[in-house]
Structure formats: structure tokens, C-alpha cells
Input
Amino acid sequence: MGYFADGFSQAADLLLHMDDATMSAIEATLVSTSWALAIAALLGLPLGFVLGYTNFPGKRALRLISDTLLAFPTVLIGLLVYVLITARGPLGSFGLLFTLPGMVIGQTILALPIIVSWTAQAVENLDARCRQTLLTLGASRTQTALLTLCEIRYDLGMVCVQAFGRVVTEVGVAMMLGGNIRYSTRTMTTAISLETSKGEFAQGIALGLVLLLIAFVVNALLTWLKRKGGK
Amino acid sequence: MMDRIFEARNLSRSYGGVCALWLPEFQVERGECVALTGRNGSGKSTLLRLLAFLEQPDAGTLHYYGSTTDPRRDITLLLQDPYLLKCSVFKNVTLGLRLRGETDHLEERYRAAMQDAGFEDPMALADRTQAMLSGGERQRVALASRLALSPRVLLLDEPTAHVDAASEEIIYASVRACLNRGVTILCATHDRTLFDFLDAREVVLRPRS
Amino acid sequence: MNIVSKTLLGATCALALALPCQAADTLMMATTTSTQDSGLLEFLEPTFRQETGIELKWVAVGTGKALEIAKNCDADVLLVHAPAVEKKFVADGYGIDRRQIMYNDFVIVGPKKDPAKVKGKSTSAALKTIYDAKAVFVSRGDKSGTHNAEKKLWAANNLSPDKEAFYVSAGQGMMATLAIAAEKGGYTLTDRATWIKFDNKNNPLTIVVEGDKALFNQYSVMTTNPAQCPKVKKDLAKKFEDWWVKPSTQKRISEYTLEGKQLFFPNAGK
Output
């Protein structure tokens, strides 16, 4: 029981005094996750929209692939990207392994299918009358597409928030590609895993609390978006 | 020759091999009010979508003798159980105008269209979203969004199917007012009261047997 | 569009926090978990940076994995503790300039009740006793330096416990392996540094064998062979190796203590 209480009091201390290592892990997490999310959203939102909005041969196959990738084990993503970006790999000349950009690549791949599949789903779930209504009001094809996009804006927000939650709490990709380097690629999750293996629970608990807080904010945001989207 | 606005011959449309509409001959005069009746599945909604140029017929000809080259600027369709976008009433009603790029005097035009749809105080509703409206109000906001476009032809699909008695009265009155302004009206309905009230010519659609 | 744009805006703000560029003088080291988990690296790193101007980054993994990382050219230098494997690594042309820098020792720990009665025996006798008694033995099982040392000890006594039911292969770091041994009431081989960190008053384990010559644990530094990996920063790597063997560093290594006990014993050039 001593472990537990001590851990919490030391955790509070670390957070209150903005301990360097703790803050650096939080920063690394947020920076890499934001990049991954930005890139994945930039690619995934248009892709998902086209996938859900249009009809073309092969669409179903693409949806199936994207849905399958949703269940891609993160360690497998880590392994594949590792093989790609190790100095001996095809992208080795960029020196990406054990750096934040290397980690961002893996996290982007993790977030992309989530964004693509769920965006397509949001478009498909939209009431069919919406498109007809827009047409009866004289909208052109482009206008109809843009307004459809606007109509699912809250769903898209939810998609991004959920992808963020998935990436921020992930440990396999961050550990394998980032290498858990102090003050550099040590994220909240890899730090927790390290501190636990060192038998030091305080920093792990402190970071765990921050992660919980982030999860709380993410869920509050989701609830809010859900309510707004219902209107 | 009368002042004809629609003329159709041997019109047919099917979905996935099932015939949804078959109409050998059909004309509408300018300023006329036509009630489309017939059993469910006889093709009323399909015909309206064709007349609104939202879809193309599989076979046959459909002519619109309007003033513009783009019939979709003259004709608008109020769908059965209409959909309102997730934004304010004001934005919903003025959406068609903004899509056309007509952004002048939006507030006046909003007010006029809402009054035509029987709202006494349009500005009170301007900022509401569809979740804050009753079924009847929703239908009338949707009607107002069509009236705002000042259509020459107004197509209505069961406009009173999902509304309470009070809203029904208001919708009758505003459709009547449109007719009096010279708008051509085609209305798919089961509602005999509406159709007597409008002195409509009845066209009964029958599925192809 | 406000939510989408807000989300994108937030993401773009993160772009402003541009990803930190690699500083010019950064050296990537692959090392073993014991040097990191014992706290030695964090203790020495500020001195290293001050004296050489080089920023040292490290990934802490088992020795096997560390060598693999260097083999793939993903690290410039190594700090590891598996002499036999290291020598083969150099002989195979993957590493150069191997220098011994310090040692600590392994100890065999086990439950305080000592069910197999090995306390005070020699390493070789203790292992035989554990094997015969089929007492639980937890192995790192991760190709780390400690795992290598352990395998060597079994082999030296002509024992191969790999497939035995009492032999638990953890596949994890030393601290986790100790925790497993504590939970299961088993014996294990550990480096002394991690043991001192692990040892606290609630600990059910105690040292049963120590001080045997066979338990000597040598640490060395090496440079990834630039002939194999042209990107290796060989000038910085040279400075790195020189730094480890110079007297002031060697003294500093001996100054690192945990719970008042010295953890590593410098022996460069010996």
C-alpha cells in the first residue's frame, strides 16, 4: 500500500513543480500526436469523404481494406515502419529512426484508417434527404458536396477527437520507433512503461494522471460534439 | 394554343428493374394547380423528381417551357417530410438564395418568405435550429425556404402529411396565395380538403399493369 | 465548418512547435537497460555534455537488441556488457575500437527461505542444486547481457534448463524479471546495480550467491564500424570513447552510489 500512496504524493509533486522530465514527456506526446493527427486528417478527411460520398467501382473493396486496417495491431505498424526507416531500410537515408518524425510516421499510419473509415461512415450515415434537399434548393454538384461536408462537421470533429485519443494513449509505435529517448522521444506512455520497469512509480502515476485528464477532456469534447451534432 | 408549361409523352422511370412511373401523356398549363393522386407506389414522388429535373426519365420526353435555359432556377420541390440542415432557421431559409449568389437584402427576403409560410414573427425564429421546432413549424420553414426562391413552379410532395391541424390550415393558405400570384403548382396528395380548397385539376397516376 | 477548422487550427498550432531538429553534435548510443535503470547514465550525462559539447541520446534495450541496432546503423556507439558476443561482433566487422570501461558483478538472488538451500555455495554448485531441486528460476530470456551471462553459467556446468518446467523465461528487463521472481518465489541472476535499486524492506528476495569470479560483469564501449555504416559520426564517437577511459570519468563512475553503495567499478585499460 505504501507504493500506492507514495506514488500519488510524489506524482502530485512532480506535476506541481513542472518537473523537467515529466513536462518533456508530455510535450513530446502532444507534439508528435498533433503532427500525426494533422497529417492524417489532411489526407484522411478528403479520402474518407470521397469514399463515402461517391460511387465508383472498387469502392467496397477500398472500404473493406480501410476497415481492416482499423484493427491493425500497433506493434505491427511499429515493426513495418521500423524496417522502412532503419538506416539499412529503403528510407534509411533520412535518419528517421528514434526521432520524433519517425514516430509521427507510425502514428499517422495508425490514425489514418480511423479517420478514413469513420469519415466515410459519417457521410454514409447522413440522411439521404439532405442531398436531395440541397438539389431542390438549386445547389450545384460542388455546392452539394461542400454543404454535405458542412452538414457532417460535428461528426468529423468527433472522428478527429477519437483518432487523437487512440494515438495519444498508444505505446507500441512510440516505443519501437521513438526508442524512448530521454528529453527527445520519451512520451507519456513510453515513460510510464519505463518507470514501471525501473520500479519507480511516481512519474508513471503522474503521467498516468495527465493521460487520464486528456482522456477526460477528449470525452467531454466528444459529448459536446455529439450534442451539437444532434441538432 | 394554351400557355403550356410542361408537356410529357410516354414518360417512364424504373429503379433496379422495377417500374416506378409510366405516364403516356401529361400536360400542365401555366398558372394551373394540379393535384397528383393515386395509390402509394403509383409514381407521384417519382414524377415530381422528374419535373424538378433532379432525375432523368429512362424513356419518353419531358419539355419545360420556361423563361430560362436552366429549369432548376424556376422550379423547386418541397420533399415529403423535408430535411433541415444543422444550422439556424435563417440560414436554412436563405440557403437557396445564397447558393445562387443572391446575398442582397437577405433579411427582408427571409422575412417575406417566412411570412408567406405563415410565421407572424420571423425574426423570433431566426436563430433557432431544427431541434427546437415542432413538426408543423419544420414543414413550414422548409416551405419558406422554397418560397424564398420565388419559384415559377412549386412542386409539393404530401405537404400536409406530417403536420397538425393548425399548421395544415396555414399551409393551405400559403399555397393558395402562391397560386393567386400566378405560380404553377403541382401537389402530390391524399388530402381531399387541400385539393378542393385549391380547385385543383386531379391527375390520377396508375402503376403500369 | 467551425469544429473542423478549430481542429485543424489546433493541429496547425502544433506545426508551429516545429519538430526539434537534430542538433549537429548528437551521438546516438544503444545501451543496456542496466546502465539506464540504475541511473548511471543520467548521473554521467551532464558531465559528458559539459566536457565534450556532445549531446548524448540513448535507447536502452537488451545487449542483443543493442548490437542489432548498431548492425543496422541506427546507432553510432554502444555501451554493453556481453564480452563474448561483443568480440564476435567486432570480429564480424560490425564494430570497432572496443574498450573495457567498468564492471560490476552479478549476484544470484532467491527467496529468503531459500527452498533449494543454495546459500553460500559456489555459483556452479548453486546452479546444480537449483536444477536438481527443480526450484523456480526466472530468466531474462531477452538476449541481454545478463541473459548471455546466465546462459554461459548453465553451459559451463553442462546444464540446459531451457525446456524444464521450473525455468521461467520472462522476456523482459531486469527490474521486471526481479519482480516476477519475487512474485513466484523463484531464483534469478541479476546485476548488482539493479538489485540494489530493487531491494527494499518489503522485498521477499535476498542474495544467495555473490563474490564468485564467475559472476564478474564487464561493460565496454564500442563504435559502430564506419566502413559498414558511413553515417556513423566517427569523430564524435572517438571523443566519446576517449571520454569514458580518461581518469576523471573513471573516478566519477566510482562516485556513483545508490543507497550508499557503489554500483560500478572502473577498470579501463586493465
